[in-house]
Amino acid sequence: MIFVVYLYGITKSEMSDREQFISSSSVKKHGRTEYYKMLEKARQGELIQVRRGIYATSEQLSGNMIDINSIVPDGILCLWSAWSIHRLTTSMPQAFHVAVRRNKKITVPAFPQMEIHYYTDKVLNVGVSQMTIDGFSVNVRVSATLEKYLEVKL
Questions:
Q1: Is the same domain home to 26 and 97?
Q2: Whole-prediction pTM value?
Q3: For the chain, which has fewer Cβ within 10 Å, the N-terminal or C-terminal residue?
Q4: How confident is the model at residue 44, as a pLDDT?
Q5: To which H or E segment does residue 55 belong?
């Protein structure tokens, strides 16, 4: 028996394979009925509200990576999170470390745990590369020293 979540007319397994979390604004484009179905799925526990207007399945949240761009637009993984991705540390970060522009106001959800680091525009975009991790497209900070190290390793 296939359990079907009728949200955009996709199955639950297809929804967990999506590369992005579901936003209420994108569902509203498909009509009010689809929006109310999404809210009902959230009430039933089939969808989890990550923050206001952003929903995900438990499968999406159980992986090692989350859709950072849905939670923190233009956010860049940095510090311990970036080091962990590049396997430069043996410890697992307790939170997602995300860099943003200094004047940007961010509201972080209670889960997943995130630490926001504020940088000036000059420093923010230096050494940033885009990577695909667990199906999510994520901006990751890479320092010049790290780039040299990775070139030697390759």
A1: no
A2: 0.63
A3: N
A4: 94
A5: strand 54-56
